[in-house]
């Protein structure tokens, strides 16, 4: 089993995110349950438990993860109810939706990430006796390379309506890399496909707490590289229509969660976006 690096490896951030999902799952008012998260965190050996929720930055990331996870879960389930039969998770990290969402057994999951992620993740899932609810394929690939070819080789069908979930990756890539990824997935998206993504928004540039978070990310060797200025224009140019666009802070408020930063002065900080493939 391979270990994750504590710094300089974007995969290590997925351990922290899994830690927050595990914490959320223990709450009486949990927004979701992720019963496999704690096993993945423990197996990593990373000291993520040192991140204390009393610290405002830690609390901000925790509440953001909880809110975005619920937003995406709800919309994946809704897309499947409308007929989508493939879910693709580029930069899947330690995601366990193939196990925990309880989707119909004819819904196929495709998880795309670097080989070292799966070298760590798969043995832990096997040792946990985890059973996906339907077909699940792992696709070791770099999103800056020819990942769609590898996705297709794993059984992805471009004629089947698909839910694409870009949850925690766009901010770590450049604008050009993000454009390329969106171009590539759009080219193989059947009518009825749906796109979900999380990205930084223009307010992240000046908002003080986000600047502090950006500095921490840079110090860890995984600095933020981009934000999406206009989601409507970004996806619209590639044949998608926005179905819902909000921010993590706004959505959190609708489900009783306070994400502790202010968008009033500098505007939206982090987008949550749902788009549908234009016919």
The total count of helices amounts to 10
SS-derived structural category: alpha/beta
The CATH architecture designation is: 3-Layer(aba) Sandwich
Strand portion = 15-25%
What is the CATH class designation? Alpha Beta
Mean pLDDT, to the nearest integer, reads 94
Keywords: Methyltransferase, S-adenosyl-L-methionine, Transferase
Protein name: S-adenosyl-L-methionine-dependent methyltransferase
GO biological process, one term: methylation
Family: Belongs to the UPF0677 family.
Topology (elements, then pairings):
Elements: H1 10-25, H2 37-44, H3 56-81, E1 86-90, H4 97-100, E2 108-113, H5 115-127, E3 136-140, H6 147-153, E4 162-166, H7 175-187, E5 194-200, H8 208-219, H9 231-236, E6 240-247, H10 248-254, E7 270-277
Parallel strand pairs: 1-2, 1-4, 2-3, 4-5
Antiparallel strand pairs: 5-7, 6-7
Helix pairs in contact: 1-2, 1-3, 2-5, 3-10
Folded structure, characterized:
There is one protein chain. This protein is α/β, with parallel strands linked by helices. The protein has one domain (10-277): Rossmann fold, CATH 3.40.50. The chain contains ten helices and seven strands. A seven-stranded mixed beta sheet has the order 3-2-1-4-5-7-6, with helices on both faces. The radius of gyration is 18 Å and the shape is globular. InterPro entries: Ppm1/Ppm2/Tcmp, SAM-dependent_MTases_sf, SAM_mthyl_Trfase_ML2640-like. Pfam families: LCM. GO terms for molecular function: methyltransferase activity. Exhibits S-adenosyl-L-methionine-dependent methyltransferase activity.
């Amino acid at each position: 089993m391979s270990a994750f690096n504590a710094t300089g490896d974007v995969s290590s951030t997925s351990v922290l995110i899994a830690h927050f999902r595990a914490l959320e799952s223990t709450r009486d008012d949990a927004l979701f349950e992720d019963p496999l998260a704690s096993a993945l965190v423990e197996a990593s050996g990373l000291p993520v438990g040192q991140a204390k929720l009393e610290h405002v930055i830690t609390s901000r990331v925790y509440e953001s993860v909880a809110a975005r996870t619920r937003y995406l879960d709800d919309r994946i389930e809704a897309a499947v109810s409308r007929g989508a039969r493939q879910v693709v998770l580029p930069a899947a990290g330690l995601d366990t939706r193939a196990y925990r969402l309880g989707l119909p057994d004819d819904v196929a999951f495709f998880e795309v990430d670097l080989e070292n992620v799966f070298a760590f993740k798969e043995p832990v899932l096997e040792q946990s006796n985890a059973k996906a609810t339907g077909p699940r394929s792992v696709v070791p690939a770099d999103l800056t390379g020819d990942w769609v070819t590898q996705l297709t080789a794993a059984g992805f069908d471009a004629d089947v309506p698909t839910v694409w979930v870009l949850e925690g990756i766009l901010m770590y890539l450049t604008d050009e890399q993000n454009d390329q990824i969106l171009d590539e997935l759009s080219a193989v998206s059947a009518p009825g496909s749906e796109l979900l993504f999380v990205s930084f928004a223009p307010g992240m540039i000046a908002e003080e707490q986000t600047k502090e978070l950006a500095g921490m990310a840079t110090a860890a060797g995984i600095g933020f590289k981009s934000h999406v200025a206009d989601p409507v224009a970004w996806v619209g140019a590639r044949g998608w229509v926005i179905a819902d666009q909000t921010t993590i802070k706004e959505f959190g408020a609708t489900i009783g969660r306070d994400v502790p930063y202010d968008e009033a002065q500098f505007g939206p900080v982090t987008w949550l976006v749902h788009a549908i493939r234009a016919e």
